[in-house]
Write a structure and sequence with these properties.
The complex is a heterodimer of chains A (481) and B (180). Chain A is built from 16 helices and no strands. Chain A is an all-alpha fold and 481 residues long. Chain A has one domain: Up-down Bundle (Formate dehydrogenase/DMSO reductase fold). By secondary structure, chain B is an alpha+beta fold. Chain B is built from six helices and four strands, in the order βαβααααβαβ. Chain B has a four-stranded antiparallel β-sheet with strand order 2-3-1-4. In chain B, helix 1 packs parallel to helix 2 (44-50) and helix 3 (57-83) packs antiparallel against helix 4 (96-123). The interface between A and B is large, with 72 and 71 residues.
């Protein structure tokens, strides 16, 4: 049979070097890389004396947006939370919506670095470092909100079990107190995992740097790493243990956050499906954010050979899977509202869909369910970079609306019509929210410039040259002989 | 402190992990024990050849986890029941189901910190100075694309000239003395 050229270049396993001819899958790393090329490619981004101009423009733009945080927080501290739109009954406005949104985004980083490591998903090696960085910066943005929301941020340490002059302690029976433990543990472990992962790469940067300051700086950060095998073995054990510990941790963090809602006896919050549905939603939005970041970065730094279409395809598949769990969660919420035979539950769901803020619910269904889950089934679309980028932003917006719907539409019309109200965010709410996006981007740009964004040692482990068996060892020696 | 003189060992450089692992296995067969491989990424086979697979990081992590669990549990019970008890709607002061979650989080926190810091402590890091950094070719390759085997001078079988000849038979790129 005559072979006719296929319309789609990625569908031809023989001609496309990016496709493994045995499996028909995209290669995880483009062929032709060796140890030196991996080091050069990744280390040069950090060590180059020619910082791309685009990076400076990005930093100026992001830093400008981040300065909104400074303005918004300053005014908040001077005037109090009254400048926000939070009122009774809508006492949990943007502060909680954005807190949950940011924390959720962070979860994909831990999923990639921990859960996919335990499942031996080698492809994660290319994306785990910047996904972890994303986690930490998202937690920074998220952590700001509860502290500001307590009204007197300078007394934020009261949340911690510290001895104080009033002799009272945190209320350990409250989900809000559990939150403090969960989020602070999550932030600490994420930073430790991230830093420990970078130590060998800092060693490489120390050895490749030419500027004395860079040598000193990366030397300090590398802790004197010298790649000894005894060190590597303990390092591998510690990484595996940290991954094993982060896995239950990441699942618990969003579970605890969902308890903030689920433990309250409020229609729309008091649901047993919340923990798994929150965790799936977190991973869904997190993978969307990884794509939003990875697609421009791989383009800008020409990383298409290390972050290949295989990665994008796999991430889209994870989004499809978690998106389906989220869709199931939405379905179950509606079903339980009916099945509970509770008038209040029933009204809440009607009000959520067709009340004054019903548009939020339908936007959520459109952005989170209809657009992504309707299209990500097709591999053709999953490997269209521009499409994935668009859909990742769509999902991020959709997941924001999910939290908006959960927080606001449950609160503003509760049991007594006489206590109904509405919720309207003020310009200070928007300013802080947009500002945190700028802060996130600023931190991310600094990370990309000054730290190895792809783990060199882990990429090297995936190269074919690393395969050792008895025969090949003998062969190599004989060849040299 | 007197300046230490003498040599730390002999450092053989290899281009491939296969050659380094081969040399390591042979060195172990020849009776060398005080030796170490330096590689840009973890090489399992080198660890097998050196017999250094087992370590105490898991044990210390477990102890850290147990410590976190005990600390958080005792802290919550003491704070809610003994130090300053608040009667909220007659609910029990020892409400242990609610205490599970902070205890769970601190188990992970203490265990994770133990894993990371026990790894660093057992590795003796941070350690800015180490004799192998004195080798002229070490820093250009050990964290990049070269594989090193160091036979250390404190090994009883170490004889400078004999050991050099021994290492050279594996076609190392170079065999250099490492100063202390």
């Amino acid at each position: 049979m005559a072979t006719k050229p296929l319309a789609h270049p990625y569908r031809h396993p023989v001609n496309d070097p990016m496709i493994d001819p045995r499996t028909g899958e995209f290669a995880v790393i483009a062929p032709g890389h060796n140890y030196t090329s991996v080091t050069q490619k990744i280390a040069n981004i950090v060590l180059t004396s020619h910082t791309p101009l685009g990076w400076f423009f990005g930093l100026i733009a992001a830093g400008g947006v981040a300065s909104l945080v400074v303005i918004a927080v300053t005014w908040l501290v001077l005037r109090g939370v009254g400048i926000w739109g939070v009122t009774i009954p809508g006492a949990w406005g943007f502060a909680i919506i954005n807190f949950v949104w940011w924390i959720g985004i962070g979860h994909a980083g831990t999923l990639i670095s921990a859960i996919l490591l335990l499942f031996k998903q080698g492809w994660r090696n290319s994306i785990n470092r910047f996904a972890e960085a994303m986690t930490i910066f998202a937690v920074v943005c998220a952590g700001m909100y509860p502290v500001l929301h307590i009204g007197r941020p300078w007394l934020g340490y009261w949340l911690l079990p510290l001895p104080n002059t009033m002799n009272i302690w945190p209320q350990f029976r409250s989900p809000l107190c559990w939150d403090v433990f969960a989020v602070s543990t999550y932030a600490t472990i994420s930073v430790v995992f991230w830093y420990i992962g970078m130590v060998p790469d800092f060693g490489t940067l120390r050895d490749k740097a030419s500027l004395p300051f860079a040598k000193w700086f990366y030397g300090l950060l590398s802790l004197g790493w010298r790649g000894s095998t005894r060190h590597w073995m303990r390092y591998e054990t510690a990484s595996l243990l940290l991954a094993g510990l982060s896995t239950p941790l990441v699942l618990s963090v969003h579970t605890v956050i969902s308890f903030d809602f689920a433990v309250a006896a409020l229609p729309g919050w008091h649901t047993t499906v919340f923990p798994p549905y929150f965790v799936a939603g977190a991973i869904y939005s997190g993978f969307a954010m990884v794509l939003t970041l990875a697609i421009p970065i791989r383009k800008f730094y020409h990383m298409e050979d290390l972050v290949t279409l295989r990665h994008l395809d796999n991430m889209a598949k994870v989004m499809l899977g978690t998106g389906l769990i989220v869709a199931y969660g939405y379905g179950l919420e509606v079903f339980m509202a009916w099945y509970s035979a509770s008038h209040w539950e029933w009204f809440m769901m009607w009000n959520r869909m067709f009340g004054p803020m019903g548009w939020g619910y339908w936007l959520l269904i459109l952005f989170n369910i209809a657009l992504p889950l309707g299209t990500l089934w097709w591999r053709k679309l999953r490997i269209q970079v521009w499409y994935l980028f668009t859909i990742s932003i769509v999902i991020n917006i959709g997941m924001w609306f999910e939290r908006f719907v959960i927080v606001v539409t449950s609160l503003y019309r509760d049991f007594l019509p006489s206590s109904w109200g509405t919720y309207r965010a003020t310009k200070w709410d928007y300013m802080l929210y947009i500002g945190t996006m700028g802060l996130f981007t600023t931190l991310f740009l600094l990370f990309v410039r000054f730290a190895p964004m792809i783990p060199m040692s882990e990429i090297k482990m995936m190269l074919p040259q690393t395969k050792i068996d008895e025969v090949s060892a003998e062969d190599t020696v004989n060849e040299v002989a | 402190m007197p300046v230490e003189e003498g040599i730390y060992g002999l450092l053989a450089e290899f281009n491939t992990p296969q050659a380094m692992v081969h040399a390591t296995e042979k060195a172990r067969d020849a009776g060398f024990r005080r030796m170490e491989c330096y590689t840009p990424y973890p090489v399992e086979e080198a660890a097998t050849a050196l017999d250094v697979h087992r370590n105490r990081v898991p044990l210390l992590t477990l102890l850290g986890g147990i410590m976190g669990l005990t600390t958080a549990s005792l802290m919550q019970v003491w704070m809610s029941q003994i130090s300053y008890n608040v009667n909220i709607a007659g609910r029990p002061l020892f409400s242990w189901p609610a205490f599970i979650i902070p205890a769970y989080e601190w188990t992970i926190l203490f265990a994770g910190l133990s894993a990371a810091f026990s790894m660093l402590a057992l590795n003796g890091l941070p350690q800015p100075y180490h004799p192998v950094f004195n080798a002229p070719n070490f820093r250009s390759g050990a964290t990049d694309d070269k594989f090193f085997l160091c036979l250390e001078a404190i090994d009883p079988r170490f004889e400078l000239e004999d050991t050099r000849l021994f290492l050279e038979q594996f076609h190392a790129v170079s065999v250099v003395e490492v100063d202390l």
